[in-house]
Amino acid sequence: MAATHHNAPGKLARTSNAVVAALLRLHVPLFGARVLAVRGRTSGEWRTVPVNPIDVDGVRYLVSPRGQTQWVRNLRAAGECELRRGRSAWQYAAVEVADVDKPAILRAYLARWEWQVRPYVNGSTADSTDAELLTAAQRHPVFRLADQPRT
Fold it and tell me: Which structural domains are found in the chain, ordered by start?
């Protein structure tokens, strides 16, 4: 499940992420995007990045179009996260999805977000075959999120 693919963000992407995160903190709705907050695996400090959650059959998922990012590594280690927008925060337990279970999730994700993630998904589209999406699954970690009660 742990592929080595990582498409690191360049300066433009980092700047764009900062702008999107700032707008989300101001509670501006941006197509369902949220700020992912997860504890750093070594520092324990909150780390944040904008993400595009996707709901498939009533289950919420996070897909990493850029592959093995820092937030993916942190989420694997922490096993829990928050999705934030404005002053609202939703707490989740996170479980990584096996590659064999990813094609339907990737298809739904690409149907919703392909316009934004096209440069990072190596030609995959919502119309890709299950076999093509299964091959792509190795490069794109996916996490199933389960609600956690507030403590």
Answer: 11-147 (2.30.110.10)
